[in-house]
Write a structure and sequence with these properties.
This protein folds into two domains: 189 residues, MOFRL domain (glycerate kinase, domain 1, 3-Layer(aba) Sandwich); 181 residues, Rossmann fold (3-Layer(aba) Sandwich). Helix content is 36%, strand content 19%. The chain has 16 helices and 16 strands. A seven-stranded mixed beta sheet has the order 1-15-14-13-16-12-11, sandwiched between helices. A six-stranded parallel beta sheet has the order 7-6-5-8-9-10, with helices on both faces. A three-stranded antiparallel beta sheet has the order 2-3-4. Strand 3 and strand 4 form a beta hairpin. The chain starts with 16 loop residues before the first strand and ends with a strand.
């Protein structure tokens, strides 16, 4: 076992840096180096390309995916569809494994579409859908139409798909869906609740894509960005049966005080659905699901395990929280900091947790859930020597800021005051990004090409 602070076996995540940060002591340097090493090894472990290549293999006329298998007959067409933030990496890996067996490939991603040999790559918009998201949905619908029973669709799904594909149901417009999405993203609702509403306003979500792909066989490889790996919530469950109802969607809007704020046409559509006048999402009993198989190839659970392994290799007595993180980010950060201090003893300790918190936006500052979590932790850690906490969005994008998250120490809160900053006011204004940037505590990776929720790692060195 390596002592804490030993030279890392690999570098930090791609492009990772602490903005303008100069360690103020050997102790602070050690903490920063160890946390970046753990983060780097975690991102490598859940790389979407590696995960797909590890899961897929072809033996004769059979395609294996983990414990699943699909026969590839001489008349079978293999068609590849990848949607999500990790779609380019996942698609490239699958094409390396399957090669010329793939007849056609469509990839829907975020940002500038990369060049992928033998694939059509298009971009949607995220986190709020736009016109390109509608065009992407139309391309997917065209891809899905005309399927045959002996076709195999290899469907590669990752987080972000809910926004990258936008297929408004009849009678609703993109602008109305944009308004609903923007309200939900600021409300503090979790991803399952947000996707419940989305599924009842669109046609490809909530099993809608499975309906469209039928009668083709579907093998779905999933990079999970949802705690608990709920297939009906990841990407709004395009190929998964759904259990939510129009009444559930209305309940989400009521719970977050949004019912009167969403467009009138949306309210009318949901009310019509509750009266049984609109078709609901796809149920497990529908015939299309008899030909659909899912395999989760990487998840937040595997990220947390990788982080735990990396921390233990560095010599930390490590505890991994089994319950996924949820709730208001600042409050979760404070609670994790208290747990870290309670575990502090005569040896280096590490706390690992994962999930996805929420932020109820009340101010006008810039921030993200990971940066707000880190700042909430900094308040509790204030004045404590030898402690540090990193909160990281594994896709490299925290909120609408350029940061991936933040890394704070027991000196961060006080240092803010020394620089003329008010950290409590920053929290109240949801301005965690600007404060952490001023402190040099922002964490930047650039887009990682993956997405398995968020990772929090906290460490404490022995006192004395």
């Amino acid at each position: 076992m390596t002592r804490p602070g030993a030279p890392p076996e690999s570098g930090p995540p791609p492009g990772a840096r602490l903005l303008r940060r100069t360690p103020r002591s050997a102790d602070e340097f050690q903490r920063a180096r160890d946390l970046l090493t753990i983060a780097s090894q975690t991102l490598n472990a859940v790389d979407p390309g590696r995960a797909v290549e590890a899961a897929l293999r072809v033996e004769g006329e059979t395609l294996h995916a983990g414990a699943l298998s699909v026969a590839l007959g001489s008349q079978s067409r293999v068609r590849l569809l990848a949607v999500g933030k990790a779609a380019p990496r996942m698609a490239s890996a699958a094409l390396r494994v399957l090669g010329p067996r793939v007849e056609t490939a469509l990839v829907v991603c975020k940002g500038e579409p990369p060049q992928i040999d033998n694939a059509r790559v298009i971009a949607g918009e995220h986190p709020v859908p736009g016109p390109a998201s509608v065009e992407a949905a139309r391309a997917v619908e065209a891809f899905a139409d005309g399927g045959r029973p002996d076709d195999l669709v290899l469907f590669l799904l990752s987080g972000g798909a809910s926004s990258l594909l936008c297929s408004p149901t009849a009678g609703l417009t993109l602008e109305q869906l944009q308004a609903v999405n923007a309200l939900l993203l600021r409300s503090g609702a979790d991803i399952a609740a947000i996707n419940c509403v989305r599924k009842h306003l669109e046609t490809l979500k909530g099993g809608g894509l499975a309906r469209r792909l039928a009668p083709a066989r579907v093998l779905a490889l999933v990079l999970s960005d949802v705690a608990g790996d709920r297939l009906d919530a990841i990407g709004s469950g395009p190929c998964a049966p759904d259990t939510t109802s129009f009444a559930d969607a209305r309940a989400v809007l009521d719970q977050h005080g949004l019912w009167s704020s969403v467009p009138e046409a949306v309210r009318a559509h949901l009310e019509a659905g509750m009266r049984g006048e609109r078709p609901d999402t796809a149920r497990a009993s529908e015939a299309c699901f008899a030909q659909v198989q899912h395999l989760v190839v990487a998840s937040n659970r595997s990220a947390c395990q990788a982080a735990q392994d990396a921390a233990q290799q560095l010599g930390y007595a490590t505890t991994r929280l089994e319950e996924p993180l949820a709730g208001e980010a600042r409050e979760v950060g404070a609670e994790l900091a208290r747990r870290l201090l309670a575990r502090r003893g005569g040896e280096p300790v590490c706390l690992v947790a994962g999930g996805e918190c929420t932020v109820t936006v009340r101010g006008h500052g810039r921030g993200g859930r990971n940066q707000e979590l880190a700042l909430g932790a900094a308040h509790v850690l204030d004045g404590q020597p030898g402690v540090a906490l990193l909160s990281l969005a594994t896709d490299g994008e925290d909120g609408t800021t350029p940061a991936a998250g933040g890394m704070v120490t027991g000196e961060s809160w006080a240092r803010a005051g020394q620089l003329g900053q008010d950290p409590a006011a920053a929290l109240a204004a949801n301005a965690s990004h600007d404060l952490l940037e001023a402190l040099g505590d922002g964490l930047y990776t650039g887009p990682t090409g993956g997405n398995v929720c968020d990772l929090v790692v906290a460490i404490a060195l022995p006192l004395g």
